[in-house]
Specification:
It is a single chain. By secondary structure, the protein is α+β, with helices and mostly antiparallel strands. It folds into 2 domains: 98 residues, Beta-grasp domain (Ubiquitin-like (UB roll)); 131 residues, Alpha-helical ferredoxin (Fumarate Reductase Iron-sulfur Protein, Chain B, domain 2). Helix content is 34%, strand content 15%. It contains 10 helices and 7 strands. The chain has a 5-stranded mixed beta sheet. The chain has a two-stranded antiparallel sheet with strand order 6-7. It is elongated and about 65 Å long. It starts with a strand and ends with a helix.
Length: 237
């Protein structure tokens, strides 16, 4: 039987890799490998997953040095000499083993004013936006973000600047800036226009390259820069 040699991070921030041998299977995903270790070799291994089909994003980890969804990553595409290295998602505190604390990631969504703020009440008629509306079509891809954190882990700037809001939070802000129903855009633009916001992006496109949903946060960040420039020229900020 062919075996896969797997090094898995154990411990918290201070820890080490532990080696396991896992049977190699056809159509095997990295999540399958981690599940085999937890169920058959070491029941104390901590990791996170839910849907197993690329819907929730909770199984994101660092595989051979790159952030990925482990449920949609086949071993055949990433194993090097029948070897895998699996670590927690980068740029986030490690709780234990492969489980990270996502609090800083979602706190930055909040700092970027990532919540919808409508102007209508339940007593008003529904706000309607045509499917072919130009602003709406600009964010067709961006609204598909599921908050998995892969882009955040792939962004070098996040590692250099702890205050940087990150590509996911800025992408979320961009989708709301383009939403004609939202009433909080002046405050949102001020939130993403500071030193830790969109102008800090170096446009290296690591986030866009690694996004499993093929979203380009880089494009959304560029849109925020344009929106900020227009608002400043109009005296709205």
């Amino acid at each position: 039987m062919a075996l896969l040699r797997v090094k898995v991070w154990r411990g918290a921030e201070q820890g080490a890799f532990q080696s396991f041998e896992v049977p190699r299977q056809a159509s095997q995903t990295v999540l399958d490998v981690i599940t085999h270790i937890q169920r058959h070799l070491d029941g104390s291994l901590a990791y996170r997953f839910a849907c197993r089909v690329g819907m929730c994003g909770s199984c994101a980890m660092t595989v051979n040095g790159r952030p990925r969804w482990t449920c949609r990553t086949h071993v055949d595409t990433v194993a090097e000499d029948d070897t895998l290295e699996v670590a927690p998602l980068g740029h986030l505190p490690v709780i234990r083993d492969l489980v990270t604390d996502m609090t800083p990631f979602f706190d930055k969504w909040a700092r970027a004013r990532g919540q919808f703020s409508g102007a209508r009440s339940r007593h008003d008629d529904f706000a309607r936006i045509a499917p072919d509306d130009a602003d709406r079509r600009q964010v067709d891809a961006g609204i598909e973000c599921i908050g998995c954190g892969v882009c955040y882990a792939a962004c070098d700037l996040v590692s250099w600047s702890a205050d940087y809001l990150g590509p996911a939070a800025l992408n979320r802000a961009w989708t709301l800036v383009c939403d004609a129903r939202d009433a909080a855009n002046p405050a949102r633009l001020r939130a993403v226009g500071g030193d830790a916001g969109c102008h800090a992006c170096h446009t290296q496109m690591g986030c866009s390259e690694r996004c499993p949903k093929k979203i380009s946060p880089t494009a959304g960040i560029a849109g925020l820069k344009r929106a900020l420039a227009r608002a400043l020229l109009k005296g709205e900020l």
